[in-house]
Amino acid sequence: MVARRDPPPLSSSNRSRFVVEEGLLYKETLSGGHQEDWPPQRQLVVPVKYRVKLLSLAHDHPSGHAGVNRTKGHLGKSFHWEGMGKDVSAYVRSCEVCQRVGKPQDQVKAPLQPLPIIEVPFQRVAVDILGPFPKKTPRGKQYVLTVMDFATRWPEAVALSNARAKSVSQALADIFARVGWPSEILTDSGANFLAGTMKSLWEAHGVNHLVATPYHHQTNGLVEKFNGTLGAMVHKFVNEHSSDWDLVLQQLLFIYRAVPHPSLGFSPFELIYGHEVKGPLQLVKQQWEGVTSSPGTNILDFVTNLQNTVKDFLALARENLQDAQQERKAWYDKHARERSFRVGDQVMVLKALQATKMEASWQGPFMVRERLGAVNYLLAFPDPTLKPKVYHVNSLKPFCSREFKVIRFTAQQRDDTEWPEEVYYEGKSKGGVEEVSFSIALGRKQRQEIQELCTSFATMFSATPGRTEQACRSIDTGDAHPIRAQPYEMTPQAKTVIEREIQDMLQMGVIRPSKSAWASPVFLVPKPDGEIRFCVDYRKLNAVTCPQNYPIPRTDELLEKLGRAQFISTLDLTKGYWQVPLDDPAKERSAFITHVGLYEFNVLPFGLRNAPAIFQRLVNNLLDGFGEFAVAYLSNVAIFSDSWAEHLGHLQAVFQRIREAGLTVQAKKCQIGLNRVTYLGHQVGQGTINPLRAKVNAIQNWPVPKSKKQVQSFLGLAGYYRRFVPHYSQIATPLTDLTRKNQPNEVQWTEKCQRAFNQLKAALMSDPVLRAPDFDQPFVVSTDASERGIGAVLMQEGPDQQFHPVVFLSKKLSERESHWSVLEKECYAVVYALE
Length: 835
Description:
Radius of gyration: 35 Å
Helix content: 25-40%
């Protein structure tokens, strides 16, 4: 760009200009309050390729993740480009850290959805549990079961010793024996209301059980509001008198029933009995007025008058409630706006509880799986062991992914200076080196060294899969005839996702249109990062594919190698399998069918038999000779070192191998230079190994299994961390017995099963820690034996002169082995541990 003549001077009529000095383009601006002789603000105009880096420096660490205005002000003091404000806004809005921490105003309310007006008393009731209270009464009462009628706001309350399902069901049966069984009961999702005992109770009496939206108490707001009122009354009574609140509970209910409800205009007594009841205040009034009892009335006339009175009261109450709902909705909706999400959208979920204000307020992102009604959404979690959950729209906000669109603008001509006609900003994330995560514990020099190293291998970091020539996959089906299946039925939303995935794969060259005689159907599953994985059901093809045997590394052996390292880096090969090409016959066999046509893979797809073995052989060859500082489990590569200088050398060696192989690495999934990393479901580093908290939480939230398959699923996840649980086999024996071939598919859940279920959960929730083994130091083995199993613990002495566990071992004894003597079992435990 060459200026034909000097730009015009700044003045009140020309407050900005562009100038070129020493090959750099500047924008000079005369700010609003400045005089013409004041020095103007000078902003360096930034080329496209440096803008994302500047945005990161201006907003991310160490700039403190400021908001849009502060980030814009921080950046605008020194730099300029057309559309910078929009880019800053998009960058800040898509910052994952800011979205997780959030602000109070992030929770935007949707318009109020009034509850349906119920006209028949006790047709629908709300039920909840209040408590536990700090101290038990002398009769052992610590909870209160509360019931509220939707039509009349008539409350019921029963003091309970515990909140278990059996006690709750008995109390409800006593209440409904007096007022009649309702058609609908609304409760929260507490375990005591969802237990099998309660389900049987509802079915036996024809009750439709409604469950409130989790973490949205307004769904059951009627009884929640009553709980607050009753709880305050009980608290005041205890402070003023004694802890015998359970003896006066009915008197407190009398007071509540006698007061007109603000929404209905009548008291619950009037709506049920058709007249005011005589209480202390009415007695005083009658005594002062000298009112005597009215003469008797014919029973038929009394019943007729009572029916008419109650009918009139309920009609008036309905009108009053409608007016109250409209008034509240108008007030509530002043600060609300219509909000909705589509199936497949990524959303953040508001945390129900926060330990501190510094803790992140939002979790996610998670995928919207289904819309339920006007304001509820079913969300799918990345962890397949977690069941989808329902959330209210007020607990959700959209997740903004970091994806910038191309901004195009035309620069204005100013005098005779030549300017470029079009400037393009290509800020869309392509998985480049700028997305690599470095340890915040690194010093300035260390950070500079690792950034320079990564930059020198910038072509290796890409969201687009590479294509290696070091492996080529074939599919040997022998003499099998082609297998052709029909596409699975899909929802319109799922079809849209499939169409988008196909277009993306076509653009990347991963697939191509096919005329193959083979065809397998496709399906979608959520990925751990919240995205959708496009999968092909190759089960029929796999059944006729000849197997290839190649060992997959043991997880515990890999963790032991990493455990004692001081610096660890992890790499994730971009869509690992897709970097391995297929030969032509294999491409035909990989064909898949969808509602938009038949396609075949050019690369190794997920789900094929032998794919893990093929890929593991590739990465093992890739790291050949690097076993002292690098390991790989399929696409997950880890580099570990004892010093920073060694770590730089090890990283460079691995990077060089990856680049030479034509492979690429997903930058946003890389962790560089950390002391502790997340690897294969564990936290590992600096001499210790811990189970991953997210996986442990999944175990903690696991519902009671009802089928043999569900028991096997639980044992599969819990067994992955069995090395952290002393006597795992003995504890799990009641559960493993349920999975025997002679056991029914619908399990018989006993107290022993529940005890084992709870013990395994408790053992993993106790934050177990294992020491990484030091093979240059001696080990100590301790063994034990019981009636049904044996156990052992491998230990090493630490710097604190204490013995720390390295691994726990356990084994369930067979029927024959369980009859051995104690001495034989003890000896067997020693032999098993040493082997």
